[in-house]
Amino acid sequence: MPSLFKRKTVEEAAPEPETPDEGEVRPRGRTLSKRELGQQTKKRPSANPRTGSTAPPADRKEALKRSREKAREDRAERRAAMMAGDDRYLLARDKGPERAMVRDVVDRRLTIGTWFFGGALIVLIGSSAAMPAIVQRVSNLLWALLALGTLVDSILLGREVKRRMREQFPKSTAKLTSLYLYASMRGLTFRRLRVPKPRVKIGQKLD
After folding, report:
1. In this predicted structure, what is the pLDDT of residue 174?
2. Is 172 part of any domain?
3. Residue 71's pLDDT is what?
4. CB of 162 within 8 A of CB of 91?
C-alpha cells in the first residue's frame, strides 16, 4: 500500500509550467497587451525631431519686435534678389527677357549720358551771373557738347537694341519705343546706381 506522505512529496516536487520566452512564436488569435507591445517594440526616433525651436514670445512687445525683424529680413532678401536680377522680384518696368537684353546692351558700353547730370551741375555753376564771361561761354559750350553726345549715344543704343531684338526676339510683342526709352534712362544713370546691378563688364561681348 503506497504511503500518503510519499504522494504528497511527489506533488510538491512537480515542476512549474514554463513561461514562454519573448522570442517564442505565440499561437494565432492572441492579441498582445499594451505592456507586451511596449516591451517588445523599441521606441523609434521621431522622423523630424525639433532642434533649436524658437520659444514663443513672452509678451506683445516681444512679438511685435520679432515681427519687425522678420519683415526687415524679408525686405533685405527681396532687395538682394531684385539687385541680382531675379525676375520674380523686379519692378514691372524691369521684367522680361527683352529688358534684360537692353540692360546688357547699355551696361557693356561707356555711355556719355552717365556724366550728363554731373556735367549739368558744372554747367549750372559756371553759367551763373557771378562767373566771368569766359567761364559762362565755356559752360554753355560744355552744355551743348553734353547734350549732343547724349543724343548721339541714345541713337546708337537704340539701333543696337533694334538689331538685337530682331535677332533674339523676332516674335516679341514688346514696343521698341518703350525699349528705346528704357535704354536711354539706364544710360543716364550712374553705373553704381543702376537697378538691377550690371551683370556684364564694360566692353564685354554679348552672345
Report:
1. 93
2. yes
3. 92
4. no
Whether this model's pTM surpasses 0.70: no
Report which residue type is found at 59: D
> Do 84 and 104 belong together in one domain?
no
Q: Is the peptide bond before 196 cis (omega within 30 degrees of 0)?
A: yes
pLDDT for residue 131 = 92
Domain count, the chain: 2
Provide the 3-class DSSP secondary structure of residue 158.
helix
E strand spans, 37-157: none
pLDDT, tens only, 22-60: 444 555 555 655 555 555 455 554 444 555 567 887 788
Whole domain around residue 78: which residue ranges?
61-90
Rg (C-alpha) for the chain, rounded Å, is 42
Contact 165, 98 (CB under 8 A): yes
- Which helix or strand (DSSP H or E) is residue 72 part of? helix 60-83
